[in-house]
Amino acid sequence: MSRLRPSFLGLAIADDRLHVAEAVHSGGQCTVRRCAMFPFPQGASLDAPAQLGAALGRFLRERNFTATRAVLGIPAGWCVSKSISLPAASPEDVADMVRLRAERAFATESSRLVTDCEPGAWQGRELRLLVAAMLRDRLAGLQSLAQAAGLRPMGVLPASLALAATVGADLSSGVLVVLGYDGVEMTVRSRGADCALHRAPLPPLPLGQEAEDPPEAWVEALRDSVQRMSVLMPAIGDETTDAHVLICDNLGMPEATLEDLCRPLGLPTEICAADTVLGLAEEGPGEECTSAAAALARLGAQGGELPLNFLRSRLTVRKPSRNGRRAAWAAVAGLIILGMVAACLVQWRRDEQQLAALRGRLEAMRADVEAADDLVERVTLVRGWTDRRPRFLEPLRELTLALPVEERIWITSLAIREDMRVVVTGKSADEKIVLGLLDRIRACPAFQEARLLYMREAESNGTRVAFSMAVNYGPRG
To answer: Per CATH, which fold does 1-167+278-318 belong to?
Structure first.
């Protein structure tokens, strides 16, 4: 009598397509047996998950996918992350500290976010781990997409972290670079713990062109993205390990080109043989297979806990169950406690006195704690301008790309507030050029709520106009 082999689907999600891989675990080995690429139908998008999920379900049945459990991988740009360090403590205290740090780090939209953290790694007496958050509405949309396709979602995490847990499992310190048709993602590790997760978008590459040589302009944009992320990359903490760059290429680019792209990272480069590491057969489960989808499917089929899972967050406060053995043990413990009340009364009073003394000491320290919290907030504000990963460079870059190259317009002043509200002041030779710049900014996905504050003549002869506009920086959705 044959036993059913557990199988899982890995779904790597992009803006206009979805890569699917099915993995099966048997005999202690995990093999990817089927892959496909699902382009979104005309008029379908992630904004209508039920419609897109129904089309995905039909596609899976036509391609003979049988697994119903799935692990979903999202782009790194869909979430925000932060590396934190904690002192040695019990697992319960660590969870409480991470929860408080996460609420402070993502305080602007904490009610709209779902937060989770990795298990982390000990570095001396400190626990270093990566905390990430994504929009709660977007997570609900992914759940609706899976349910409409007839799937049972078991986990949602950034696809780059799934690759880091499979092909980059032996990368203690270094950088994992994942190249895709629509962007490049980079995961930085230090002493066995993920400490940074970045994504840089790329110009659109037409469907079916991934396996061919990409255009030179697209390669140049890829090179610029890697160089920019090399500036934002934090320092690798472990100087004694053999840190290197591990490249996972989904485009089939020449090795010389890949090494040249990652030279700004300043570390030795290694090309990842994803087909071998991910267990793909020699004849291949399909030319449309990507390493991200295969890694997600393998993580699900192998079982165990995912490195990050927004569906089952480690930071969720779970109430203890009152059923089964715990209830029986609680009843026995209650009987024992009732029998020992008389003997423990004196000790209880003594403990109560000690507790009162400790509370008094804690109250005396309250002023020092508040002063320390105020100092931490001030240092955090200053680091926003002095850290090697300044977040204020992102709106500057997007605004520079929005400026027309050949038009006669220039910026005279630029102000960026802490809430990422940008106020631009400048001059132009023509009002049409100013209105054209406003339209380009409104069309940019990185900006929202762009509006013109004023536009008037800058000189008495009317040859130039002065303008000012305000825009909020932040991804839409």
So the answer is: Nucleotidyltransferase; domain 5 (3.30.420)
